[in-house]
Amino acid sequence: MVKLSYTSPMGRIWSWLVFAYGVICLIVLTFGFGLIDNFASGTSIPAILVAAAVAAALAGGIGGATAMLQRLSRDLSDTSISLSFLSYLLQPITGLVAGLLSLFLVSLPGALLVNYAATRTLDLAALAASSPFVALSLLLAWLAGYQLYDWWAKRQPAPAAKTAAASDQSASPLAFQIWAEQRQRMSRWSVTWGVFILVYGVIWLVALLAGLIGNAHFFPTNDSHPLVTLLADGWPALLAGAIGGVMGMLYDLYRRISFARDFDRQHIVAYLVLPLTGLVLGGATYLFIASGYLSYQAWVSQAPSVVDAPAVIAIYLVLGWVVGFRQEAIHGLVRRLTQTVIDFFRSLLSMFSPKLLWDQASRADAMSEIAQKRDLFRPLDRD
Question: How far apart are CA 272 and CA 73, in angstroms?
Fold first, then answer.
């Protein structure tokens, strides 16, 4: 079985292959959202379910590919880690499955139960037309693919720590020579690979600023499907996240070369990953805002779409940039969202308690608590 480690020539080759595989997965899965245009919006239940399943699978796959690239950059920065090549290849694929499971086990049942608690009706077509539900279902699917490997890894037994005999290298007459050669290599890498990363970042920055200033759209804005329209409106947030990733990459490069003087070529893939993961995390931030802020339009009559309001645009642009620049900040957002979903479904599971079967007052209170979340799934075109 092939193992990944940047300390050997073959390990570097396989590491670059994994990086290329992750980039291809992100590109293919993103273009896959164009398939949603083939499904009519709100025409039939099978078409609605197929469109929702395709979107959730793609979002979960993007989450898995994003987590894979981040894990690759972390693992290559630690020379003591040697992981299976197959585990990286499977992560985007398992993300597809996790996205589907999140739709049919979490998003769709939860939204239908909330609607039923409030209106005593199950209207799937109206639910599919709700932009808050579309944003929330995509966000949960992405979250499932993004968190699946970490959830699985935490449940595996920790590998036994390898103990090595301590050697007094400082007392060796060759210690200074080894240190000097290492510093010389780092200085040489700073000039060669450092310039390459700088040019790579500048190219990204110019392209992203051109797309942001030129108001470019990856998805058509005149599409009738609410999912494609929602993604088209969030395109600036993706660009802001990628710009944050580029700025974070250039700042860390400057810090390592000018101050820490510890630039190592094993960090190259980690630098190359930052703009790509920043792009995806900016989109996840937009979905997080859209799933909450869009619901405001449900009960404000004659108001413009909140996601198009200048204040909200500024919010998701700034947050997208911040998440791209400090990508570890997304973990706090992920934990918060995960806890919200867990709390929500605990209240749903309480409906199946035997106590509620014989206590009508408690059952009514539980239904009222669930119905309070109705605003999140209300279509935007209702006054």
Answer: 9
